[in-house]
Amino acid sequence: MKLRIRAHPRGAARLQTNCGQSLVEFALIAPLFFLLIFGILDFGRAFFVHLTLQHAVRQAGRFAVTGQQSTGGSREDSIKAAAQQAAVGLDIRTLTITSCCSTNSGSNLAGGPNDTITILMAVDLPLITPLIGKFFGDNGVYHFTVSSTFRNEPFPL
Length: 157
Description:
Elements: E1 4-7, E2 13-16, H1 19-65, H2 75-86, E3 94-99, E4 116-126, H3 130-135, E5 141-151
Antiparallel strand pairs: 1-2, 3-4, 4-5
Helix pairs in contact: 1-2
């Protein structure tokens, strides 16, 4: 804040400040500043979700190709648990496991030895900045889909 002493026409000195000008400048710049800050946060969250989904698909695929399964559950449930464990901070609801050689009605969707499997995950991320949400995503929600294809090892059945 600059203080200036200015001579008054009647001879008395007056103190003058620029507080009003600073307030107007802040009011003009603040919305752009906050849009930039929240936009950076949204893009950071989006990159986090995308990289976490890629990591979860890789980890689920690594688990799936070995033919392992946890006790008391199916092989598909074990693969989904491995994916959820790798996807820290995300709620994975859409996880699809398909095999080239098995049908969806069968009990073994993750395929057998030497089969090719595909793991697909999808997550929705609600954006916190409404203005950015209008340009990226539907109704402020950005959809992520990650998939990868693996070939099962020759594991024993």
